[in-house]
Amino acid sequence: MSEQTEEKMSDATKLMWAVIGVFVIGFVVVAVSKQESPQQVEAQSMLRNYVAIQQMANQKCPAAILKETGEEVFFPAEDPQTDKETYITLKWKGEKKFKEASCTLHGSLGGISELVIDGKTIIKKQI
Asked: Is 0.85 topped by the overall pTM?
């Protein structure tokens, strides 16, 4: 019976070392993956900023157009004009109460810097 006990302890010891090995490998993988170059950090930061500006524009611009015209808009009619760092301009086509609207949002202002509906400037803020 002592041989069985030694064999079981040996298996238990092997299992313990295997678990410890998995944890060590996991920590090494996480440590290596967190080492990013300054260029990667900068690119990720720029992407997050662009996404934030785009989300803000998609929330604030339709609300401002609805407030001014009484018509709700959902999707921009054209691809956005943007430098992908500081501003984004979205354009919508109206169906009933206006023909077209253009809304520019600058991240530094934290809101709409220009709103033009059917050629009439509703909002114009200097940066």
From this structure: no
